[in-house]
Design brief:
heterodimer; A: 574 residues; alpha/beta; FAD/NAD(P)-binding domain; 4 domains; elongated; B: 245 residues; Arc Repressor Mutant, subunit A; four-stranded parallel β-sheet
Chain lengths: 574, 245
């Protein structure tokens, strides 16, 4: 474009690039293009960045091509270092990762580097300066899920002075942890009761949450829909008889936990068929019920007798051990099975307790010792997969492999406890769609790559076992981390994002609403007059609308058709 | 250099995947040049055709694995469009294998290098485009920039979300694309040769009189051509590109 002043900076990357291509030849070629050219040994180092600044000042360039490493890894460094050059447009020629390091033949790689440089030069000359889009962040948060992760996040955010809506689907806060009879290895109650006993788990305290000034607890409440974008979400919550309520929040924390694997999917374990095959969740219920009646006691469901022999089956639904299983390890089951086994031995020293496992995992300080103590207390550990649980007459029989002896064995038993793993909870898909948080291959919410956090702020964070199986302390730590992210955003009060958004040629628009239908982020509004309007704040810059627009009325800034053609031509027509 | 390959890479998976190939020093041929886009869903078939017309011998579109698209369904949109384009490439004997959609995760440097090497070989085997290819590519570009096919493609998520039969939908897309190809071939002929009547155009293109007549009508409706002289019957109606007489 006329009036542009172009600078080209070529980096040697401490010889890395010289290893793959002839940089002086590239430099010579660069001189034949329309800008001023300089080379540097190591551009992203402190000296290199100073050099770049001096060069850009002297050349008064408004456009610069950095030939060197990948923009994916290093663009941020240059953006920060050159942030005070207002009006400067930076483009990259990726001659390191995608050229010097990628090809055998130095000669041909050098030729390709020239093409890459020419493409970047032609492209940068086509680029226009984007106006930043400033988003205000509403100083309030919604925390979805009142388990330990959610409670911790709510507590932390509120204690920094921001309003928090803590939305819990069930009647009570506490999540799964509140339904545990005891937690291991501390053998304390699941959720903290305000008594501050010395071996209490480090969970947030329910009463403190209720007492906190900035937290509004909404129990028996469910999120039904969400609209908006970073800094300004309108979340609709359905609250039993009280009807619906719309909450306006700036940040969102999803802490919806997980659900346990349904053991009916492994029919050979007999969960469906036999009363005395129960899950680890149900053994908790038995303890809690008995506690209400006055004391620790384990009775089996069929006849309320105290079982004389209990067998635990590990990895139920985990680690791909059975066809219906999930591929991953659920982290918590080894420890809770050992805990229950020890507890049974403590209550009934004569009872026989046996844990069938394939591998035991107790990888944390104190856990290995806990395992040793379980063995010392007389709990039997049998390595090998359980084949089936069956009934012979009135007797329950477990048929299993003994891997140490390399043979199948069987044993009569009175109670079988299935150590079920964790799975994404049912509403994961719905919330993922609502708040545009990706899910991984197992269906859990995607863990954000911390490196992306800076360029990819959405104001939606996930904590606890909604990301994947967690034990209590990890879930609480997650809650703290998510809260910290949300707080940082709200304390700043605004967020500036690159203005890489579609522009609409209203004359060309045929009002077909394709863009409105296709935008994954609701960034196209359909007005009452049936006009399409770009909601820049909500746009994520994908450009799907531009590729789809039947009338070709939409074009994504920075990736406009013409800009891509220019790049194509620079690549192909020489 | 032959073959020239353009690879459109999405910013989130494929582009870092290509970087990772370099970082791991997995070597691949120099023929492939990467154009970064935010999402593979940005890749308009028009852009792909533009690349071919400008001299590319093969085009790859690389995006995130299914279900992992940073923009939810951009990769599916890309796949649907390229699949259709591939179908037309085969139908018009341009070699559908010149087009490929691949899912590359950021960690799949090896896959990127292998797929690229394989694609370069595939295109090398197909060879350069024939002389007449350019004309067909131009017609295809018109087709994919045309409103009708774009409307049909754009309706995909609506249609499929509301339970339409995927296969049937695909067949419909193909049918529309073929009809549009015919129409734009007629337009191209008129552009090249000036004013012609239905009968002559039909003969030149090997189309039936009836379908050529329909193309004339459609083009006239869309305001792309104007009606000229009329001969003895309706197949003697002359048409010319709007504003060019």
């Amino acid at each position: 474009m006329g009036g542009d002043k172009l600078a080209i900076l070529i980096c040697h990357c401490n010889g890395e690039i010289d290893n793959g291509i002839d940089v002086s030849e590239l430099s010579e070629f660069a001189n034949s293009l329309s800008g001023v050219v300089k080379e540097h040994e190591y551009l992203c180092g402190r000296a290199g960045l100073e050099f770049a600044r001096a060069f850009l000042k002297e050349s008064e360039a408004n456009k610069v091509v950095l030939a060197g490493c990948s923009p994916r890894t290093h663009r941020g460094i240059f953006l920060r270092a050159l942030s005070d050059f207002k009006g400067l447009i930076i483009e990259h020629a990726n001659i390191r990762e995608q050229c010097a390091w990628a090809h055998e033949d130095r000669r041909r790689a050098t030729e390709k580097a020239k093409v890459l440089l020419r493409m970047a030069v032609h492209r940068v000359l086509e680029l226009e300066l984007l106006e930043k889009i400033k988003l205000d962040i509403t100083p309030s948060a919604i925390v979805i899920g009142g388990g330990v992760a959610g409670m911790q996040a709510a507590y932390d955010i509120a204690s920094r002075g921001f309003k928090v809506f803590l939305v819990e689907r069930s009647k009570e806060l506490g999540g799964r942890v509140a339904r545990l009879s005891s937690t291991f290895p501390t053998i304390s109650c699941g959720i903290c009761c305000m008594h501050n006993c010395p071996n209490c788990e480090l969970t947030p305290k329910i009463e403190e949450i209720y007492a906190a000034e900035n937290i509004e607890v909404l129990t028996s409440a469910e999120v039904v829909s969400a609209k908006g974008h970073l800094g300004d979400y309108k979340v609709k919550v359905r609250m039993g008889e009280e009807g619906e309520r719309e909450l306006n929040v700036g940040t969102v924390i999803i802490a919806t936990g997980s659900k346990t694997f349904d053991p009916k999917r492994i029919p050979e374990y007999g969960y469906d068929a036999f009363e005395d095959v129960i899950t680890a969740e149900e053994i908790e219920e038995i303890y809690l019920n008995e506690r209400l009646k006055g004391g620790d006691k384990l009775v089996r469901p069929s006849d309320s007798k105290i079982p004389k022999r209990v067998n635990f089956i590990q990895c139920v639904g985990s680690r791909g051990l059975k066809p219906a299983s999930n591929p991953y390890c659920s982290i918590t089951c080894c420890l809770y099975a050992m805990g229950h086994a020890r507890k049974i031995k403590e209550l009934y020293p004569d009872a026989e307790v046996c844990i069938h496992y394939v591998d035991l995992r107790s990888p944390y300080r104190g856990f290995e010792e806990y395992y040793n103590a379980a063995m010392d207390s007389g709990v039997k550990f049998v390595r090998g997969l359980v084949e089936r649980v069956e009934k012979r007459g009135e007797r329950l029989v477990i048929v299993y492999e003994n891997a140490e002896l390399r043979k199948m064995e069987e044993m009569e038993t009175e109670l079988v406890v299935l150590s079920v793993g964790q799975e994404p909870s049912e509403n994961t898909a719905k919330l993922s769609e609502m708040f545009h948080v990706g899910r991984d291959i197992d269906g859990f919410f995607m863990e954000l790559n911390p490196r992306f956090l800076v360029e990819e702020v959405t104001g939606v964070y996930v904590a606890g076992s909604a990301i994947g199986p967690r034990n209590i302390r990890y879930a609480v730590a997650d809650g703290k981390a998510a809260a910290e992210n949300a707080i940082r955003l709200m304390e700043q009060g605004f967020f500036e994002k690159e203005g890489m958004v579609p522009e609409m040629d209203e004359e060309k628009c045929i009002k077909c609403a394709t863009c409105f239908e296709i935008c994954p982020f609701g960034a196209i509004e359909l007005t009452k007059e049936r006009e399409m309007k770009v909601v820049e704040e909500a746009c994520w810059s994908c450009g799907i609308c531009a590729a789809e627009c039947p009338a070709r009325a939409l074009n994504l800034k920075q990736y406009k058709d013409e800009q891509i053609f220019t790049e194509l031509n620079a690549c192909l027509s020489f | 250099m032959f073959p020239k390959i353009i690879t459109f890479c999405c910013n989130w998976c494929a582009y870092p995947g290509a970087d990772f190939a370099g970082i791991s020093h997995f070597k691949y041929p120099v023929n492939a040049r990467i154009i970064r886009v935010m999402c593979s869903g940005r890749v308009d078939p028009g852009l792909v055709l533009e690349a071919f017309i400008s001299g590319a011998d093969g085009v790859m579109v690389m995006g995130c694995h299914p279900g992992e698209c940073h923009y939810e369904h951009g990769n599916y949109e890309a796949e649907r469009r390229i699949k259709l384009l591939r179908y037309l490439f085969d139908k018009y004997e341009l070699g559908g294998k010149r087009l490929r959609v691949e899912w590359i995760a950021a960690s799949e440097g090896r896959k990127f290098a292998e797929v690229t090497a394989d694609f370069v070989e595939t295109v090398r085997k197909i060879g350069a485009f024939q002389e007449k290819a350019r004309e067909i590519l131009e017609v295809m570009k018109d087709t994919f920039y045309g409103e009708r096919l774009r409307l049909a493609l754009g309706a995909a998520s609506r249609a499929l979300d509301s339970g339409a039969d995927g296969e049937k939908y695909e067949e419909t897309l193909k049918k529309i694309a073929e009809e549009e190809m015919k129409k734009y071939r007629v337009l191209q002929t008129l552009r090249k040769e000036g004013e012609l009547c239905v009968r002559v155009v039909a003969e030149k293109l090997g189309l039936s009189l009836r379908e050529t007549f329909d193309c004339f009508l459609d083009l006239k409706h869309e305001g792309l051509i104007e009606e000229g002289d009329i001969g003895e019957d309706r197949y003697m109606i002359y048409g010319f590109v709007r504003g060019e007489r």
